[in-house]
């Protein structure tokens, strides 16, 4: 599905191009200066672990620069009206719709691990009893299409504070009922529009859109919005992600 022509498209297209250009420049810079860097650090290219840690550091620096350029974590994503909602709303995952995990509400509990004080798992009923926040925002997929949807659920910042998460930790990592996983930077996790979404268009989140819950984070590309979440870890280790580990940019802000 192609981008619908509207005001934010004008902003989006040049920006996407800009991201690509910036990444290309960083990549070239990285490639050209690799020899010099290895010398500086006193290692040769055969010294894999040292070379890798330099590349990792540069990649983290790239993520930091993107955050500084786009300031995504300080800005609010555009919100839309009910009339703007894309209907029908597409299905998307790394498999076809009939393969979407069929998580049952009975027995489901959201697991919390890592740097969290209160690790007691959460039932859906308990999550539904918390204050709910709604949003109509644009979901942008890295494949080049975007759609507008409506989600509601628990403010993720409120949830992290409630369970005594160490919000000074670097990351929040997610594991899903399929083989999907992703890692978010803490600033994005705490963004005021990041929600643990329990509904889509005011109905219980359907299986195809991530039942029992997805993280809806409009300041990130679609693949940073994990569906069918089973466990959440607060951590200082980057746990990577399904697409991130296949080369998609880790930061992937919108
Ligand atoms: N568990 C899980 N989450 C996932 C995916 C997936 O395959 N499995 N795909 C991602 C991608 S690439 C996109 S574009 C969105 C699609 O979310 P939607 O169903 O709400 O449109 O889910 C993201 N989260
Ligand atoms: Mo996507």
Taking the sheet with the most strands, its summary is:
5 strands, antiparallel
H-E order: HHHEHEEHEEHEEEE
Q: If helices are DSSP runs of H or I spanning 4 or more residues, what is the number of helices?
A: 6
Shape: globular
The CATH architecture of the largest domain would be Alpha-Beta Complex
The proportion of strand residues reads 15-25%
Tell how many strands the DSSP assignment holds.
Answer: 9
What's the name of the CATH homologous superfamily of the largest domain?
Oxidoreductase, molybdopterin-binding domain
What is the alpha-carbon Rg in Å?
19 Å
CATH level 1 class label of the largest domain? Alpha Beta
Task: Provide the list of bound ligands, each named once.
Answer: ligand MTE, molybdenum atom
**From the helix content, strand content and strand pairing, which structural class follows?**
alpha+beta
Task: Give the helix proportion (percent range).
Answer: 25-40%
Give the tags:
about 250 residues, alpha+beta, Sulfite Oxidase, Chain A, domain 2, five-stranded antiparallel β-sheet, four-stranded mixed β-sheet, 6 helices, disordered N terminus, binds the ligand Nc1nc2c(c(=O)[nH]1)N[C@H]1C(S)=C(S)[C@@H](COP(=O)(O)O)O[C@H]1N2, binds molybdenum atom
